[in-house]
Structure formats: structure tokens, C-alpha cells
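User: Sequence in, structure out. Go.
Assistant: Echoing your sequence, followed by the C-alpha cells.
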Amino acid sequence: MEDSPVRYAMTLVCALIAIPLALLLDKKLHQKYPGARPYKWGYYTGLMGMLTYGLLALMLVVGPAVDDEKTLTALIFFTLAIIPYFYILKRRKWAWVVGIILLFNPILWIVNAVYARNRWKEMPIPTDDPADPDTDETPEAGNEPPQRQGEP
């Protein structure tokens, strides 16, 4: 997609949706785990990826007919690209790696790689053991997050 007003409008709409949702999700995280580190950028990245790739896929479906190979390939890519961004919201390590690559922007590669590295220890590690509790909602693989200095 070339630079056009539609592209900028799409980015603006996605950002206007993602920013308040990211703040809300981070607030909920800190209500449940007061000692957790902020994850606003992680939520924002996950939401922006889901919204933009989802909107691109939707534009291909409702736009011109999906009859050529390039359009169909793009539609499949955009649809599959939503998956790692959903798991960034769930704080999965593999999703950060895949999501960073899918950004196709070297500056964002660096910014997100540094951010993910700083939050790496708080991200849950999924287990194959059905007896283990679900780790989707915990910031540290089922453990309580570390307490900040001065907190009981």
C-alpha cells in the first residue's frame, strides 16, 4: 500500500482505539498484580498489530474481488499475522519475537526488542502439564510478580 490519506487515516483510527484499550488493560493488570511492571507498550503493540492487520484483511475482502494470487496471498498473510499480536496481549515470549519481525520497520524492531527484553522475565512460560494452573493471566509463569522496594 503506497502512502495515501487512507493509510494515515487507518493508522490514526487504530491508534485512537488501541491507546485507551492499552491503558485500560494495564490498569486491570495492576489491579490484579500491584507489583507488576507496566505493560502499556506491550498492550498497545498487540492491539495495533491486531487492528491494523485485521483492517488490512477486511479492506481486501470488501474491496476488489479476491481473484488474483497476490491479493489472496496478502489476505492470508494479514489474517495469520493477527495471531502473534493476540498472544502479545497474553504476554507470550514467542509472540514478541514473531510480532517484532512482522513490523517490517527497523526502528520499531529496536524499540520493541528492547522493551520485550526488559519485560522478558515477567512473561509467562506455558507448560504442557495439565496439572499446572493456567498461566495466561499471570505476569510471571504462575508466580506472583516481584514486589517493589518498600512494599510488604
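User: And one key feature?
Assistant: The CA atoms of residues 18 and 67 lie 32 Å apart.
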